[in-house]
Structure formats: structure tokens, C-alpha cells
Amino acid sequence: MTSMEELAQALVPESAWDVQVPGFIDRDGRHPQFVPLSAAVYVALSEGFLRLDSVAGRSQLAVRRVDDVEVPEALLDEDEEFSLASFGEPFLADAHRGFRITRIRWVTDPGSDAAAGVVRCAEFEFEDAWPVFADPGWHFGIRLEGVGAFDRWLAREREAGVDLDVASWTR
């Protein structure tokens, strides 16, 4: 695994153009429906993907670079049709050209290992303006939110007395 600092440095030449969630097409109803499997989220980069995984019983976020999207294990033995959904528009509305990651903020707690790319949650900011906050503590997988979400989450956790450390990398 790669540390969060090393990962951030490796992303310097990259640009992101989408945020994608894997899932499957459910064709059992009247209309085909995309069903997300949000335990993993992908940030599509100019070269490969940044994969975010909900791990450790949904209490930690593992962040790593991968060459391609992986079919979720839940679908390997199923007859369901694998698919990706673009969630980029709410976060990267103008990303037709791709945006650089200009800042990453992450939170560690006693269960984290930032040296191995495992943190409590993280925010990725694109071109100093468009943040994507990823929280693996959501019941359905990774919850994605935009502007202000990181700070609101951090304030709530600190009010509750949770022991957290915040680190960041800026381009």
C-alpha cells in the first residue's frame, strides 16, 4: 500500500474527469434500473483510477490507485449485468476537460493507518473549487458529498468527543 502523502504526490500530473460508482443493472422490473454497490467508488483519472474502498466494517476508507475498474465480488457469481454510474456531474460539472486534484484532506482515528492509505474519511478538492467528501461510515457504503461536508462532519465528530487527527496535502 502507499501512504496518503505518496499517493498525493503521485497524483500531481493527473487530472480527474469523473466520479464513478460500480453496480449492476436490475432488469426484473418494468424498466431497467441501476443498483449501486457503493462499497467502492472510483475517481476516473487521465491515467487509471483512484479507488476508494469502505473497509474495516465500514469505519475506514482505503485509498489506492488502480489501472482499471474491478467488478465487485458480489457480482462475480451472479447473472447480474455489471455497470458503472457517473456521479461526477454534481461534483465536476465542467470536467469535460479534466480537473487537477489541488488538495486532499483526510482524517485519521485509532483504527486508521495513513502510511498504508487507510484513513477514517477524506476530501478531494479539484482546481481549488470542487470538493468531493468520501465517508465510508454510511450504511450503504461510501457517502459522497460536496462543499462544506468535510467541515460539517469534522465538527459533529469533535462535538461528540471523538479522537481525530486531520492531515492535508496541497498542490
Describe the protein in words.
The two termini are 22 Å apart. The longest helix is centred in the last third of the chain and has 11 residues. The strands form two sheets. Strands 1, 2, 3, 4, 5, 6 and 8 form a seven-stranded antiparallel beta sheet that branches. With 171 residues, the chain is mostly beta strands. The protein is globular. Helices cover 13% and strands 45% of the residues. A hairpin with a 2-residue loop joins strand 10 and strand 11. The protein has one domain.
Counted beta strands:
12
Overall pLDDT confidence? 91
> Number of helix segments?
3
How helical, in percent, are the residues? 10-25%
Rounded Rg: 16 Å
What does the main sheet amount to? 7 strands, antiparallel
Q: Beta-sheet strand percentage?
A: over 45%
Q: Which structural class should the secondary elements be placed in? A: mainly beta
Low-pLDDT windows of residues: none
How do the SSEs run, as a string of H and E?
HEEEEEHEEEEEEHE
The first-to-last residue Cα distance is: 22 Å
Mass-distribution shape: globular
The total number of structural domains is: 1
Topology diagram in text:
Elements: H1 4-10, E1 16-26, E2 33-36, E3 40-45, E4 49-55, E5 60-66, H2 73-76, E6 81-86, E7 101-108, E8 118-119, E9 121-126, E10 130-138, E11 141-145, H3 149-159, E12 165-170
Tell me briefly what this model is:
13% of the residues lie in helices and 45% in strands.
Give structural attributes.
13% helix, seven-stranded antiparallel beta sheet, mainly beta, globular, single chain
